Amino acid sequence: MNDEVLTARGLRKAYGDRVAVHEVSLALRPGEVLGLLGPNGAGKSTTVGIISGLTVPDAGTVTLSGGLSLASDEAGYKRRIGLVPQDIALYEELPARMNLELFGALYGMPADLLKRRTDEVLAMVGLSDRAKDKPSTFSGGMKRRLNIACALIHDPDVLLLDEPTAGVDPQSRNAIFDNLEMLKAAGKALIYTTHYMEEAERLADRIVIVDHGRVVASGTQAQLFALLPAAQTLQVELDGEPDDAALAGLPGVQRVGQRLDARMTDIGRDTGPLLAALAERGVKVRGLATARATLEDVFLQLTGRALRD
Ligand SMILES: Nc1ncnc2c1ncn2[C@@H]1O[C@H](COP(=O)(O)OP(=O)(O)OP(=O)(O)O)[C@@H](O)[C@H]1O
């Protein structure tokens, strides 16, 4: 028995010679946000496309809880999945409300339910007072929020979001994050693709890092940071100008001008001994700061390249 709402196994998709997705497997539980993190072209959209049923894989399976798959019941499967595509997909010249009604009609929702859900999702994304307006008159952030509302109209269990904050102002971005946290609290399962590691760090319970179509690492943030030789850096601001000889031989310590950067796996344990060693050598300390490793560091460690170009 498992409590997964979605299980993807061995997904593979090639376009000619180019393998976009290679043996990607992932699983998702209710109330969980899975961050799919990787640079441009890593295969995130293709993976999401396969899970949504828009892209046919060359190999692999996606199953929802209860054993539901595209092969067993395509309409039933799609009713449980919502997709927020990377490129905004709206009818620009139709009122916001009508956009939602059209999406709802695709799922065969009865009129009374559709009316109720339309009101609910408009309220959720903060667009109730713009229901009669056309997306062509909306800001980028408002269009994104309406796009998310369209994906939620049929109340899916699983929401796939493909870089949903592209071109969004900070205020709308925060509003989107609030919405996603609300959905998570309501037990929805979310796959969130991004190449912004700050977004993955903020939202994701677990993260799958992809590169060149392959999963290079997956786990909780703590598990991913554990892949680094040192998860934290203690920055020691020096008082005066100690000579390099006084600083020689301190393990994991690097001098950066008037500062020492000490890489540590356990900052609580390792700070005391370092400060004692510095005092013993007559090195005076003016201040301390800590810097935490980021997912960018994890990606760099695993691939030797930066996440963003
Ligand atoms: N329809 C297609 N035809 C040919 N090649 C494609 C197609 N879709 C994707 N690819 C290629 O597959 C690879 C993975 O693309 P994908 O869009 O899945 O990456 P991504 O991680 O979502 O990147 P981005 O963040 O830029 O959207 C890329 O090399 C891309 O050029």
From TrEMBL:
Domain of life: Bacteria
PROSITE patterns per UniProt: ABC_TRANSPORTER_1, ABC_TRANSPORTER_2
GO molecular function: ATP binding
Keywords: ATP-binding, Cell membrane, Membrane, Nucleotide-binding
Domain ABC transporter: 6-237
Keyword Cell membrane tagged: yes
PANTHER family the UniProt entry points to: LINEARMYCIN RESISTANCE ATP-BINDING PROTEIN LNRL
Protein's name according to its UniProt entry: ABC transporter ATP-binding protein
Organism: Pelomonas parva
